[in-house]
Specification:
The complex is a heterodimer.
Chain A: H1 9-34, E1 38-40, E2 44-48, H2 50-58, E3 63-72, E4 76-83, H3 87-93, H4 102-128, E5 132-134, E6 138-139, E7 155-164, E8 170-177, H5 179-193
Antiparallel strand pairs in A: 1-7, 2-7, 3-4, 3-5, 3-6, 4-8, 7-8
Helix pairs in contact in A: 1-4, 1-5, 3-4
Chain B: H1 3-8, E1 12-17, E2 22-25, H2 27-31, H3 35-38, H4 46-49, H5 54-67, E3 71-73, E4 99-107, E5 114-122, H6 124-216, H7 218-230, H8 233-265, E6 272-276, H9 277-291, E7 296-302, E8 307-311, H10 312-328, E9 335-342, E10 346-353, H11 360-363, H12 383-393, E11 397-403, E12 407-415, H13 422-425
Helix pairs in contact in B: 6-7, 6-8, 8-12, 9-10, 10-12
Classes of the chains: A alpha+beta, B alpha+beta.
Chain lengths: 194, 437
């Protein structure tokens, strides 16, 4: 493993705790917006290679994918994996009218990704006192991308799973940071740890 | 806010307060609004000014107020949020502006008031470029598919052509050879018959001489017998019959080969007429089963007593050859099935056997004349090529599927031919009632 992404146990624990708090806030905001209960998993922090990332995001065939980049004090991308099942119920919660058109489905996917990824990032940035800006989300097809061509060897990913409890819908949000941002993140965590 | 600067931005800005009222519009936004709304928009509820998309806008603005982070809308899903005209009223192809929207939360640092800032980006040019690209890609894909189909068709046509060419040239060669062999065969056969007669006469003469000696000069009989023994007359008598029979059998085989060659090569002047396929099939199975007793035979014909217009002799020859092959492929026990079915456009004949099958490497060559896997003297390798050319004459198709050790399926598809079809026009269509084997 690359030195840059090797987190000490303390750093990892701190990051996990920060993620936990910000994810909780994200879930709360969404729950408030669509007036329903939302469950979250314990954030999973791992180091991956490009193929590892592919496996992480693409093990479910029946999914929609989006990606969204963020800039500011830290740079990176968020990938969201949304199950196809249960999406219609969620769209209804977002006040879309049935039956859903193809564009309604796409808009729901993009909107959900933006809300959750945005809430996660906002929470994390706030905890770490870093300024970030989230860009527009776009649909993404990992099957069509060649992960092995990516220009990096290792990356740190933070993964969290949301369940919307009225339906079978689940969504995973995966944060990937570039090397410089990772260094920045580590030093920020170190400052917090004192 | 630095308003003159905001008026220069190539982005539409609309600021909405928590009661969804418009509190600011920049020049980009104002310029593109219908003129009657321009004067009155400020201070009005968003719902009054832009009623069409208000449900969507309110939902998004609410999410921005609640979540305190931006919301996006992309032109592909929702191209015309605000009823803005295209920025090129003269030369543009689009009449309405295609928009990307971003709503960001904004907090006034003095009043601590919350606002939602709607940012509109004109992406008409990108969108129409993207659409053109997509259309082009679609078109390319279609053309590519069409070309691939064409290439496949060409490939098929080429291999058919090669096959036909092979058959034609070997056919001519075979006809020539058949003719050349027939001439010597004629006199060899005739001479052999004469020789047989001569030999018989000679032997009879020997026998008569012996009798003559016995009655008229018994004292010299011993000498004569000694002479006969010295010239092996007895042995000659014993052996000659077998030798002659073997030679005749050999000649028969040669003439059989020659006639098969000719039936394969030459255009036979046989008659076209209606053939009762069911009757033909059962008779054929009867004939073959006397020769090949090991397999079980099964015949089916739908509809029963189906009559088919064909060139009867070559058609029967083809069926016979295919069935013979199937029967021969079974070594110990197995099944040979002949299934005839009328289809919408013609007739489908299936010959299935559970015999030894054909090696994949040989499958390509089975229609080649003289190609055989049987031991020398057991097969001429003409059966399938004769069948092939007969089926071709009926404008039909012959397809072989085989797996070594499992069996073979041969499918013959024949189109319905009419008495006045081109293929049959110059043949004198027989008026004889349907015949069979």
């Amino acid at each position: 493993m690359n030195d840059v992404i090797a987190l000490s146990e303390d750093q990892r624990d701190a990051l996990q705790e920060l993620m936990n708090i910000s994810m909780g806030q994200a879930a709360n905001s969404l729950a408030h917006l669509i007036e329903t209960k939302i469950g979250i998993s314990i954030p999973n922090i791992t180091a991956v290679t490009p193929t590892g990332l592919y496996e992480l995001v693409s093990h479910n065939q029946q999914s929609y994918y989006t990606r969204q980049s963020f800039m500011g004090d830290i740079h990176g991308e968020v990938m969201s994996i949304l199950t196809q099942s249960g999406l219609e119920e969620v769209a209804e919660l977002l006040e879309y009218e049935q039956p859903l058109s193809d564009n309604d489905i796409k808009e729901t996917i993009l909107e959900l990704s933006n809300i959750l990824a945005g809430a996660c990032l906002a929470g994390l940035s706030e905890q770490l006192e870093l300024a970030t800006n989230l860009q527009m989300p776009t649909l993404f097809a990992p099957q069509k991308s060649d992960f092995s061509q990516y220009d990096w060897q290792h990356s740190l990913v933070m993964e969290v799973k949301f369940d919307i409890q009225v339906s079978s819908f689940t969504m995973r949000v995966v944060f990937c940071l570039d090397d410089a941002s990772l260094t920045k993140l580590k030093s920020t965590i170190d400052e917090l740890l004192g | 806010m630095n308003e003159p600067l905001l008026d220069k931005l190539p982005v539409g800005i609309c600021l909405v307060n928590e009661s969804y009222e418009i509190v600011y519009l920049n020049a980009f936004f104002l310029d593109r609004m219908p003129s009657d709304l321009r004067e009155v928009a400020l201070g009005k509820p968003l719902a009054d000014v832009f009623p069409e998309q208000i449900k969507f806008l309110k939902r998004r603005i609410k999410s921005v107020f609640v979540l305190k982070h931006p919301s996006f809308s992309y032109w592909e899903q929702r191209p015309h949020i605000f009823p803005f005209k295209s920025s090129r009223p003269i030369t543009g192809e689009e009449t309405q502006m295609v928009q990307n929207m971003e709503i960001v939360p904004h907090k006034d640092s003095e009043t601590q008031q919350q606002y939602a800032c709607i940012l509109i980006q004109d992406v008409t040019a990108q969108a129409s470029y993207f659409k053109a690209q997509t259309q082009l890609a679609e078109q390319l894909k279609e053309e590519h598919e069409a070309q691939r189909k064409l290439i496949r068709k060409l490939d098929r046509a080429q291999s058919q052509l090669i096959q036909a060419e092979k058959m034609a040239s070997t056919g001519q060669l075979a006809a020539g050879i058949a003719h050349e062999i027939n001439n010597p065969m004629g006199f060899v056969t005739a001479n052999l018959n004469t020789l047989e007669q001569y030999a018989q006469n000679l032997l009879e003469t020997c026998e008569a001489t012996k009798k003559l000696f016995a009655s008229h000069a018994p004292e010299r009989l011993e000498d004569l017998e000694a002479l006969f023994e010295a010239t092996h007359v007895e042995l000659i008598e014993e052996d000659m019959g077998a030798l002659l029979q073997e030679s005749k059998d050999g000649l028969d085989r040669v003439s059989e080969i020659v006639s098969t060659l000719r039936s394969f090569a030459e255009e036979p002047q046989h008659a076209w007429s209606y053939l009762n396929l069911q009757e033909t099939a059962s008779q054929l199975v009867q004939l073959i089963s006397t020769q090949f007793k090991k397999p079980k035979y099964k015949v089916s014909c739908q509809p029963e007593q189906l009559k088919w217009y064909c060139e009867t002799a070559s058609f029967k020859q083809a069926l016979t050859n295919l069935m013979m092959n199937a029967a021969q492929s079974i070594e110990d026990s197995g099944l040979v099935m002949l299934d005839i079915k009328q289809t919408q456009s013609g007739v489908a004949i299936k010959i299935v056997d559970t015999g030894c099958g054909i090696k994949e490497t040989n499958l390509k060559r089975v229609f080649e004349p003289f190609f055989t896997t049987r031991p020398e003297g057991k097969g001429q390798g003409l059966g399938l090529s004769v069948a092939y050319s007969a089926i071709e004459k009926h404008k039909g198709k012959l397809v072989i599927n085989s797996r070594e050790g499992k069996g073979t399926v041969i499918e013959v598809r024949l189109p319905r031919l009419q008495e006045d079809d081109d293929t049959t026009a110059n043949e004198s269509a027989s008026t004889a009632p349907s015949e069979s084997l």
